[in-house]
Design a protein that fits this description.
The complex is a heterodimer of chains A (about 280) and B (about 290). Chain A is built from twelve helices and ten strands. Chain A is an alpha/beta fold and about 280 residues long. Chain A folds into two domains: about 1-95 and about 200-280, Rossmann fold (3-Layer(aba) Sandwich); about 95-180, no CATH class. The longest helix of chain A is centred in the last third of the chain and has 14 residues, at about 210-225. Chain A is globular, with a radius of gyration of 19 Å. The mean pLDDT of chain A is about 90. Chain B has a domain at about 60-240: MetI-like fold (Orthogonal Bundle). In chain B, strands 1-2 form a two-stranded antiparallel sheet. In chain B, a hairpin with a 4-residue loop joins strand 1 (about 40) and strand 2. Chain B is globular, with a radius of gyration of 22 Å. Classes of the chains: A alpha/beta (about 280), B mainly alpha (about 290). The interface of A and B includes residues 92, 107, 110 and 191 of A. The structure holds adenosine-5'-diphosphate (ADP) and magnesium ion. Magnesium ion binds near residues 42, 43 and 203 of chain A. Magnesium ion (MG) binds near residues 42, 43 and 203 of chain A.
């Protein structure tokens, strides 16, 4: 069963129909790239998946988005647990106005996770990433003895998971806004992961980054995809070819083609996809 | 900028100097402690104790701020974060309109509504045995509380309008980042937006506070103007601005009278300067804390 199924999704801003009847499945445990020229509705589609779209004024959504079989637009659906389950990484990283440490601790704190629950969360995380040392033994020991040791441990683990720990371990109390943009994006990734999402939505997460940081983020995604469903909007075909397993091509609010990335990005069936890939339309 | 700042600074200095020179006669004849701490104000007998007026000023302002600050900040948060854009667009001009109504209108309105309201609730509240509410004494309604309520209403639009602007100036992405982790809207306001907004809100409160301290006309009309040390919020009072406005220019044949009133003005100015300065310092500290995170 696909993790996310989009059924007849129509989204409009006021009178402007942006998404016109999208029906598509997003497979589990893979990186799905959404590609298409700018303004075709990629961001809109992405934000529809965890209802972040509803923060826009005058937006109207029709149709269904099924996650694990439940329609997220059901009036009874719990929007808070949906957003916890489906994390979002924005185009321009936006650190919360607080320290690096507090950025990571924010999510667990608002969800009231503390003490033993934190330790359980970390154990679960370790099972997911066995070949990746996110939680060194010495840190774990200090967590038992120190006050707030569990939260310190959690912050360290997620910063390690996002590949940021070594760069910030001596200045955790510094405002997150002082980090470079590339570091901020990895911080945003760590922050998103800290509430145990199952799906990560990423909206052109590397477009404002330097090539080295962009590469780091891509590597993180490839590592994370075993345990998370990743939906990645990307404006560069090269990035999609490098890391995507599955691809969806949007054009003027319609889904033109979808399928395995190798097929859609290299040997598409539709004429419009061909035109986009060869750079005739952009 | 520099020239303007220097000009404003020297203007304040000139005003203080002039007030000081004009109040010098009374400062030369009476000890300062008597003027500040004596409660009897009998100009014809040469007794000029400003204590009740100083206290009244502080009380009436404190009551106004206790009412205005929580209510206006909550209203501003509602308008900025919860209300729809269409509602915001309709309400904010009204708020600005309220800020432009002349104080005398608030005064008349206070006399017609707030004063009778206070007179009505005084015996009820007084019988509850709250210390600051008096012991069920009769009140005309012209009182500290009436002054505080009218002042609070005058201060609302100032605080609301600035606070809404402060919240709207926080980047949309901060909300998005917080909400996308499953935070509620209130958690987002309280833990994320508040941090950015706090210096601005403090500035709004300070602005409202200095307006309340110096406000004259509306307070004068509802506060009773009786020269006593008020012992409950239902007692009348005589704040400094009202004292000056009511008496300056009259009975100037009484020796030292005008000098005493100008001393009152000097004290008022110094109180306002002191609070503004303290508020500035608080603001600087908050700003530093917010950026340090
Ligand atoms: N908040 C909004 N209000 C009105 N129109 C919007 C809004 N956001 C996006 N649009 C319009 O919707 C279309 C699709 O936008 P978007 O989903 O951001 O495209 P993409 O991410 O593919 O560049 C564009 O034409 C854009 O102008
Ligand atoms: Mg976009």
């Amino acid at each position: 069963m696909p993790h996310i199924s989009i059924r007849n999704l129509k989204v409009s801003y006021g009178a402007h129909n942006v998404l016109k009847d999208i029906t598509v499945d997003i497979p589990d445990g893979q990186i799905t790239a959404i590609i298409g020229p700018s303004g075709c509705g990629k961001t809109t589609l992405l934000k529809s998946l965890n209802r972040l779209i509803e923060l826009q004024e005058e937006v109207k959504v029709n149709g269904k988005v099924l996650i694990d079989g439940d329609n997220v637009y059901d009036p009874q659906a719990d929007i808070l647990s949906l957003r916890k389950k489906v994390g979002f990484l924005s185009q321009k990283p936006c650190p919360l106005p607080m320290s690096i440490y507090d950025n990571i601790a924010f999510g667990p704190r608002i969800h009231g996770v503390k003490g033993k629950q934190i330790l359980e969360q970390i154990e679960e995380l370790e099972k997911h990433c066995p070949n990746n040392e996110v939680c060194p033994a010495n840190t774990r020991n200090t967590a038992r003895t120190h006050k707030n040791g569990e939260m310190d441990l959690l912050v360290e683990c997620y910063l390690r998971l996002a590949g940021l720990w070594d760069e910030v371990k001596d200045r955790l109390r510094m405002p997150a806004s002082k980090l470079s943009v590339g570091q901020q994006q990895r911080l945003a990734l760590a922050r998103t992961l800290s509430v145990k999402p199952e799906v990560i939505l990423a909206d052109e997460p590397t477009s404002s980054l330097d090539p080295v940081s962009a590469r780091l983020i891509e590597e993180q995604f490839q590592m994370l995809k075993q345990n998370y469903t990743i939906v990645l909007v990307t404006h560069t075909l090269r990035q999609a070819r490098r890391i995507a397993d599955h691809a969806i091509f949007l054009y003027l609010g319609e889904m033109i083609e979808q399928g395995p990335a190798s097929k859609v990005l290299c040997a598409p069936c539709e004429a419009k996809t061909c035109a986009y890939i060869s750079g005739e339309i952009s | 900028m520099l020239v303007a700042a220097a000009f404003a600074g020297s203007l304040a200095f000139i005003v203080i100097l002039a007030l000081y020179l004009r109040s010098k006669p009374i400062l030369d004849t009476k000890p300062l402690s008597e003027l500040l701490l004596n409660s009897s104000w009998l100009p014809s007998q040469g007794s000029f104790g400003l204590y009740p007026a100083i206290l009244s000023t502080l009380y009436v302002t404190a009551i106004a701020m206790m009412i205005a600050v929580p209510l206006s900040i909550l209203s501003a948060i509602y308008l900025a974060e919860y209300a729809k854009e269409s509602l915001r667009r309709r309400v904010l001009p009204l708020v600005d309109l309220l800020a432009g109504i002349p104080p005398v209108v608030y005064g008349v309105w206070g006399v017609l509504t707030i004063v009778p309201f206070v007179a009505y609730i005084a015996p009820v509240v007084g019988s509850l045995g709250i210390p600051a509410a008096g012991a069920g004494r009769y009140s005309t309604g012209f009182s500290l509380l009436a002054g505080g309520i009218v002042l609070a209403i005058m201060v609302f639009p100032v605080i609301i309008s600035i606070t809404v602007q402060v919240f709207r100036s926080v980047p949309f992405e901060v909300r998005e980042a917080s909400l996308s982790m499953g935070a509620t809207q209130w958690q987002t306001v309280k833990h994320a937006l508040m941090r950015v907004a706090l210096p601005g809100i403090a500035a709004a409160v300070i602005l409202g506070f200095s307006r309340a301290l110096g406000e004259t006309m509306a307070v004068l009309m509802v506060v009773g103007n009786v020269f006593i040390v008020p012992s409950s919020v239902f007692d009348p009072a005589y704040p400094l601005p009202a004292l000056i406005a009511n008496n300056y220019g009259e009975m100037m044949s009484i020796p030292l009278y005008d000098s005493a009133l100008l001393l009152a003005a000097l004290i008022l100015l110094l109180i306002i300067l002191m609070f503004t300065l303290a508020a500035r310092l608080i603001l600087i500290r908050i700003e530093r804390r917010v950026t340090v995170g």
